[in-house]
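Hi there,

I know you've been waiting on this one. I reran it after we fixed the sequence typo, so this is the corrected version. Both the input and the resulting structure follow.
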Amino acid sequence: MSNEEVKGEGLSMLVKKALTEDLEVGALDVRVNTENGIIHLDGIVDVLADKEEAERIASRVRGVKGVENRLAVAQDGIRKDKELSKIITAKFNEESDLLNIGVIVKSGRVFLKGKIKKVAQEQKAMQLTRQIIGVKDIVSNLKIISKEDSIIGNEVSRVLNSDQRVDSAAITIEVEDGKAILTGSVLNIEIKELVNHLLAEIEGLQEINNELVTHKGGVGGDTALEAMIRRELGQTDGVSPVQVKVYVVGGSIFLDGEVDSPEQHETAIKVVRDIIRNVKGVNGLNDGIKVTGKKASKSEK
């Protein structure tokens, strides 16, 4: 067996392990093969949602260059188009924000039509539809009621600035014809997905083009985490990044500098802990801050 075949077999095992751990059902019926870093998925799953989730899980395994998804949706006890249409419509009628969405089914292929206010409604409708047995594919013809680009841009900035998990200073926003284009960097894939989730709730936004680069540790991730901590310190009363120095190396946070009181020290530590509580991959917090003011205790001097 060649080295490439060994590497391919190892990558297939990693993907299979990820599918078994993360895919709720149907992972045992999925066959995984690798060729030149491309994962090939074969087999049968119960619903369309499982097919799409399997591809998402496989694509996130380190070393995977691409995924060819040949999974088929089971046809056992297949439902007629009229029955599928009734089931989907009934699901939508249970959700107040999906009442105006129309459903047409042709040979198991579902077409969604109507006017909505935001991307999140489309995502919700498609997610509900994916879970229904018998659905082979979904085509969205939903139209989002538009707003001016300037209004959308201001709302995108407001939403990102208001969530402390997102370092908005590292993100560049451009809105054109209702489409938001994001460039820059975030700490990890979870934050990148969080950004998509936050923007999907903005009314009038037609499309999200998330081109953010993610950093799993290393210099890029360290720099982004440093910037986030310094920004939060700068926005916190009683402490500033001038007094407290922040360094991040290999995911470990080092704090240095001098503050005037134990209260300032506690405030700085709390700011940092609140941030890393929502960030994966942080290896530890090393507190080297010195309290030099008159209120310092003997142990802190």
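Quick highlight: The domain at 219-300 is CATH 3.30.1340.30 (Histidine-containing Protein; Chain: A;).

Best,
R. S.
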